[in-house]
Amino acid sequence: MPSVNLPNPDRSITPYRLTGEPIPFVKHRASDFNRIAYAAAHVVADPLASNDPWLTPAIDWDTTLKFRHRLWDLGLGVAEAMDTAQRGMGLGWAEAQELIRRAQAEARTRDDALIAYGAGTDHLMPGPDVTIDQIIKAYEEQVGFVEAQGGRVILMASRALAAAAKSPDDYARVYGHILSQVQQPVVMHWLGEMFDPALQGYWGSIDHDRAMDVCLDVIATHADKVDGIKISLLSAEKEIAMRRRLPASVKMYTGDDFNYAELIAGDDQGYSHALLGIFDAIAPAASAALAALGKGDEKNFFTLLEPTVPLSRHIFAAPTRFYKTGVVFLAYLNGLQDHFQMIGGQQSTRSVQHLAELFRLADQARVLGDPELAVKRMNAVLNVNSVLA
Hints:
- By secondary structure, this protein is an alpha/beta fold.
- Helix content is 41%, strand content 12%.
- Helix 12 (308-315) packs antiparallel against helix 14 (352-364).
């Protein structure tokens, strides 16, 4: 196996010899799995566009859409235009609409394309004068757009609602209004403040247990319009507690990028499906593990998936909102895009030390598909950052 000189926390640089035998890319269909699994997919920037990267997104549409087909080939669904696609951190509503249009067109070319789209209020800037009626109207615009394209909705959390709500009743009013109108059941999305500080106090309380009560009341009232809920609180205990209180018809989609293996496997009282950003980065491993679980081979499921958990915990380490950088870096190392650039210049949000440790953990998780290429590209990043490689 090849080796690469990597920086250490004490500022020394020492050789690291790769040891992981890559998990091969093996095609699967969603029907091979006994869990529903969405990967929240990233977008690929266009590095040669003439634009202001911090202000104007430039997207390489061909490579972005090719990556969606890769996920579908592995049997995974695509959670589109979500926070992994830098929604609200470089990807605005105008670009999201184009992404949704293009992705839905690609999905129509296949008979196995599971896809759902984020709809929220990110085109409405939070502010002291924003009203609940304006928030409802903003949700209606985005939900209406997704449904007009023939898409299924993932109902995203709203920064504007978090800022404007005076009580849990405001959440009940907004969600009740939108859920009463949707054409087909939606996946609700509770994104914790560790992913987006502007969402602190969502559902009317900074206490997650009290917030959960409010969310569960909304779901129970509109259970026929809710396919499931994704929660991203990075707490297995809270997810399990909520999962056990859901109506029987409503699924739990884990958004816990720290504890997903155990949550997907489940216990004698139930299990979680998946809607995860980390599945973008570890797609072949996730697919192989889910296929093993679908065959009843829980031991192999954990053998394949558990080594990815330390990698995921590193990628999603605080400040968690910068996890997208690690996801895109892995796509670059694996040859799924030709550069390590991101819209909004977000490739700069993680240090060289962080990227070096990510490389080590990715190798140990067996998710570097071509070790020789990964080493070559790691060296390129180290050289650009004036680190002796």
